[in-house]
Each structure stands twice: as structure tokens, then as C-alpha cells.
Amino acid sequence: MLDGYTQSILIFTGINIIAAYSFYAPFKTGQVSLGQAGFMAVGAYASAILTQKFGLPFPVALAIGGVVAGIVGVVVGFPALRIKGVYLLLLTLGFSEIVQVIVLSWEYVGGAQGFRYISFNPHTLTYTAIIIVALILFFARIERSSLGRAMDSIHQDEVAAEVMGVDVVRIKLLAFGIGAMIAGLAGGLYAHHATFMDSTTFNIMLAVEILTFVVVGGGSTYWGPALGATVLTLLPEFLRTLREWLELLPVAWTNFFPVNRVYDFLHAFLDFENAKRLIVYGIILIVMMIVRPDGLLTRDSLRRLPFTRWKPGHA
Amino acid sequence: MLEQTANGVCLAIEGLTKRFGGFYALNDVNVEVASGHIHALIGPNGAGKTTFFNLITGVLSADAGRILFEGRLVDDARPSNRTVKGIARTFQNIRLFPHLTVLETVMIGEHCRSYPSVWKALGKAVLQRPFGEAQEERTMRANALELLEFLGLAGQRDAKASDLAYGDQRKLEMARALATKPRLLLLDEPAAGMNPHETQELDEVITRIRDRGVTIVLVEHDMRLVMDISDRVTVLNFGTKIADGNPKEIQNNPTVIEAYLGEDVQL
Amino acid sequence: MIYQQLINGLMLGASYSLVAIGYTLIFGVLNLLYFAHGEVFMVGAFVGLYLVIYAGVDIYGALLGAMIACGALGIVAVFVAVRPVSKDRPLAPLISTIGLTIVLQNLAVYLIGGRQLAFPETIKQQLYHFGPVTISSVQIFILAVAVTLMVLLWLFIERSKTGRAIRATAENHETAALLGVDVNRVVLITFVIGSGIAGIAGVLDGLKNSSISPFMGLGAAVKGLIVMLLGGLGNVPGAMVAGLMLGMIEILSAAYIGTTERDFFSFLILILILLYKPTGLFGTRTIDQR
Prior knowledge:
CATH topology of chain C: ABC transporter involved in vitamin B12 uptake, BtuC
Distance between the termini of chain A: 40 Å
Radius of gyration of chain C: 18 Å
Number of domains of chain A: 1
Radius of gyration of chain A: 21 Å
Number of helices of chain C: 11
Helix content of chain A: over 70%
Order of helices and strands of chain C: HHHHEEEHHHHEHHH
Largest sheet of chain C: 2 strands, antiparallel
Structural class of chain A: mainly alpha
Number of strands of chain A: 0
CATH architecture of chain C: Orthogonal Bundle
Distance between the termini of chain C: 45 Å
Shape of chain C: globular
Mean pLDDT of chain C: 86
Low-confidence stretches of chain C: 286-290
Number of domains of chain C: 1
CATH class of chain C: Mainly Alpha
Helix content of chain C: over 70%
Structural class of chain C: mainly alpha
Oligomer: heterotrimer
Shape of chain A: globular
């Protein structure tokens, strides 16, 4: 029903949304992680090993991949409890890099050649959609619960939360583990759609990109990650469509000076070349941080919507 | 409750010592707080009063000494765990959660009572009915409202904590601390920044909290308030205890008067 | 053999140090992980390359040109991605400078193409033998430039009035402002100096590897971060020494253990430092953990 190209774009958007939620979970307790690329790699390799080397069915392998990533997340998250801010950023960045080095030197999963010929799963789109719906429901309920409120309090003042009896250690660890598990699911979906991965697939730039999804979408509401990931992933597609619209304009409208110059410039600029797409992406990030540093969606903007029958975080 | 008041020891501090570098913030301090008392802790600036609170609540760890709460050692417990055991506090430099509402802030204090384990909290969060709410949540809100009523903040329940007036923020800190259902409440300069009328009210509020069966340790610069409501007063100077006694004794203690020389305080 | 490796480690470490100095200076005054710093390094390498090829300048001209161009880039960065961005949200400046990173890297890819370019030989290659150790003229040049720069910078930071202002700002913004330090100006100067040094480091890197690519910045950025942390956040002399140490460690582990493990060790060091000595080996000026 959907052509392959559209399906592929939807899948990548969906995987990015899931990855964004994997960042959002620890972020809700104030932990900023660049380790989500590493956790995606753990989930991707674990699930691909299970389907390719042990012949497990995809859904089972996907789930186990998520659990393995979650366990690794708790193991990484435990020492990470001791540090904050920049230090946590660097620690998780180091984790992602170490995963890359391990993948590169591990011959069992292809080493420098990469993990090749992973069986393509035709139902990835369905699984992606199911996981996204589940995640949104999950975070909507967290938002309306006492646990969600406790997480917010940790984000806003960790010491005060701890002194008020909030079990900061366990809640932060739980959030970090849940985030890692979600990242593992995203990785597993990616592996069985792209069918190839190597040590550079889950690199630092991916971790940084996941962070930008959430900050651009808005990290204070659970709709923010989905919005940010969707907007930023579809942006190049949007630019491409814009170009096609340009081409639809009657020649007579554009074929005179100086409009023709503007037209040519835009037409050349809006093509689907990666470097230009990324330049625009970078500019948008800078502009966003200047005009809307809290992200596209904030708690206050949600409160202003007429149809929100309950206030977020308020039950 | 009354028997406890008669002779129980709520908090016993033995040989408490804290160094920052080579500087002794607290040096071998011994204090005993009787159950049901309002026990004031006074001393010039830098005497180590806030450090004392930070050590009791576990925000800092002591270099030496023991802290016994209701006869049990709490030295190794994390701050949240000490709160669960029954110790609560307010902060001198107000530390509210700026983006939470007044009601939500108080409900944070109740979280540890309604959800003793993270798993229960997670389970209740995930399994709640789509448009309903957990029984715990209803109880928490009712209790929180009652506390807000008690402290006269009920009218501002939906305001953002950071939007409250200064005096109200201090009251909200007390409400949040009381929400943890403490048996020992540490108040760090509750009257700071309040006008005389508000201080008068505070006087009454603190007494009423004590009458609910909560032992209170009070750090305060407003000597009139201290001498008015305290059952016992401990004086610290440069990290050392220099006096201990009832308000009358303290007011006539020459060492204390000397320590306060040069400070603009009416004993 | 070991002496030769130590020399090679020193060479590698010198360029790490130069990159990390800028990082740590900027972190000191702004508490900001300036991700675009690696790209500034890359831009410096390309400016040097084009100056040599098209303007026909010698290596000193290339170094000077790269320094000026990158210094100017530092000013642009401040006005585009730092000053307009709200300071009370810790993630906002981080993201805007990540945006700048992406723009610079892809601008380079767009203008040059995603390939490696050969860096011209601007110094006559000559080998000197000292007992078991062989050093080339290029290596001596790189080391000399790096050491000179570090000494000059150290003198500047410790002795000059501006250097004192930078140190005061790194300790505490408010206090510095109260003491009459123009914090905005200090931030600007810090970016110019840090970026200028990164530009020189880029040219030196081109000289050493005889090739450069638009993607050389990311690796430099990550290694620079590790060095900064190892030396203590905001600690300039610490970054200098830590850079040399990391260079040695990497070369030695590559020589005696394996090349893939080389990166593993640097990240292992990063993690161990974070967990057991987050103030770095030589202490840090900014201990605020937020």
C-alpha cells in the first residue's frame, strides 16, 4: 500500500522517535546522556546476533535486545549516579565510543567489515508503530503519576528532592535503565531494516542528533521528543518537496530578473545533497536555541491548548 | 505521645565533627533533643548551624561522631532514607521546585509515604486506568490540601511555587517537609525575610506543629521568636558548643553574651 | 624502540594539547563544552593548505593565516551561537554550538568534497639520528611551534592583565564582574585565543599526517575533550601536560598492544577519571558540577 521509499522514510522517522524517547526517560530526571547511540548499538547487535546466529524470530530477538541494552544501561547508570552535568555527558560519550571500539575489534560480528546481510524484516513499520504508541501511552501515564512528579522534582533540584524522601538513586537508575532499553529496541529495529551496520553506524554524531531531537522538540513534555524527531527527520524531505513545488510554478512567473536568480539559487539549494541538508539542519539548531531555547513544545504551551482536559503532571 | 514527651530522647548527637579543608565547621559537638521539645540552635553567623542540619539530614557526611535518631544510628543512611525514618527539614536558602505548583510540591513530600518502593510507584503509574486516578493519588491530594489549609496556602494551590511571595515560599517549604510525616522537623531560619506580623503567625504555627507531636529543632536569628517558643536552647560559636540550657539560662550566660558581642542582636 | 615511541607520543600529544587548551579556556570562562572546537581545528588546516597552494606562502605564512582566520571564526561563533543564546538553560548553548559544528563540517564537505587532500610538503624533509632515535625536520618544527605556543600562552595567562581577567572569570563570573572585569570581552578574547591556537594545531596536524579531510575535526574534538578532563576542567597548564600524556599512552598502547585497543584505552581513561577523579589529575578551577 505504501511504496518502499515512503515506508523507509516512515521507519527511519519512527526509529528516531523511539531513540528520542530513550533520551527523554533519563532526561526527565535531569540526566543528559550521550550514551544512547551506544545503547542502540547494544540492542542492534544483540538482536541481530540472535536472529542471524541463533535463528530466533525477530520479535523475540528484538525484545531480548532491548532487555540486554537495559541491563547494560543499569550497569552504566550505576556509576553515572555519582556525577552530573558535563561529567555525565562525557562519561556517556565515553561509553558510546567504547562500544564502537568493541564492535570494531569483534570479529564475530564482522569486525571492520561490519555486520552484513542481516535478514530484512518486512514488518518493521508495524513494530515501530506499535512501540511508539506504547511509549507515548507509557510516558503519558508516567507524566500523570506520582513517579513522574518525583522525576520532575529530581530534575529541578536533586538535593531538595532527596531530602524530601524521594529515592533519587533508584528513580534515576530506573529512568536510565528504561532509556537504555528503549534505545536497544530502536537499535534492533534499525538493524533489521538497514540490514547492515558497522562500528560507525552508532557514532557520536547519532548520540548528539538524538539529544537535539528532544531539546528541539521540547524536553519538558512527553510530546516533545516525538515532535522533535519527526520535524528534524522529515526536514530534508520537506526541503525536497519544496523544490518539487518550485518546479511546479509556471515558467512565466519566474523567468525574469531578479526572480530567476532567486529561483535558481533556491532550486540549487534545495536538492537532496547531504552536505547542504545538514548545513540547513545546523542553522536551524542555532536559530531554535536563540528563539525557542525550551523547544517547540513546552509545558506552558500545552497548558494553553483548549482541549487538554487535564493539566500535565497534575492528574 | 505524652509519655514520649516526658522523657524520650528524639535526637542524640555525639562528638559530631566536620572539617572543610583545615577549617572546623563543627568540632566535637554533643546535643540531645528531647521528644516533643522545640529546641533552638543559635549562634553568630558561621557558627556551623546549617552544617549541623546538613549532617543530620545526610546532605553532608560527618568526619567523626554519631547521630542517633530515636535511639537508632542513622549515620550510614542516605538523606531520603533518613526522611523515611522520620527526619524532615526546610532550607535556609529556599529550595523549592520552581516548575511545580504549590499542591504538587507538597505531594512530593508525600511520595515516600504512599510509594515506599520504586516498583510500586512504577506499577501504579503504568497500570492506572486511562482517565481515572489511583487511590494513593486521591489520599495524597487530600492530605496535601489539609496541610496547605493548616499553613494558610490553600488559596494558592495551583500557583507555581516560584511565583509565591517570599514568606509564602517559606511556609510552602514547611508544608512540604510536614508532608513527609516527620517526627523530627529541622527548621532553618524560618523567619528570615518575614515581617513582624508574619513572624507572629509563625510563632503560632511552630507551636501548633509541635502540638501535633513533632519534635522541632530551630535555627533562627530572631531572638524574640527563639526565646518565646523554645523549650531548650543550644549555642554554637565557631563550630563548638558554648552553652546549653533553657531560654532564661541562655539569656544570662556570660559566654553567650560575649560571643554575640559586636553582633546586632537583642538577646 | 621505546625512545622512538616516546618521541612519537610526544608529537601526537602536542597536537592534543593545543586543541585541549582552547577547550579548557572556553570551558573555564563559560562552563560550556564547545563542540565546534574540533571543526575550528579542521578549518585551520584547510586555510593553511589553501594559503600554501594558492597564495604560495611558506609554512609560517600558513600558520599565521590559519591563526587569524580561526581567531575571526571564534568571534563569529561568539556572536552567532553564544551571545544570543540564553545562559540560564544549560543545554541551549551546547546545542547551538553543536549546530555550528554541523554547519562548519558540512560547509567544508560542500565546498571541498568529502575526500582527503594531500598537504603540500613545505618543510624540507630531513632525518636526524640521535642514537636509536630518528627525528625528522617536520617533527622538530611541530614540536618547536607547539612548545613555543604553550609557553607564550602560559605567560599570557599567568602574567598579563587580560590573563588575570580570564582566570578571575573562570573562578566566578559574578565576582569577576564585581571586580570590574568585562566578562563579555573576556569571553570574546578567550574564543579568539582558543580558536587561533586550534587553527595552528590544524596546520601542524596537516604537516604531520600530510593529508587533511573535512572529517578530521570530530576525532580531534573527542580527544581534546578527554585531554581537557584529564588535565582538570578549566586548567590550562593541566591540559598541556595531559595532552602529552594521552599522546604517549596512545602511542605506547598502539605499539605494544594493538591499534584498535588504542582508542579503547583513551576512553577507558576518560571513564576512570570521571568516576574516581573528576577534578582531573591536576585539579580544576571550576568545581561546579552542573
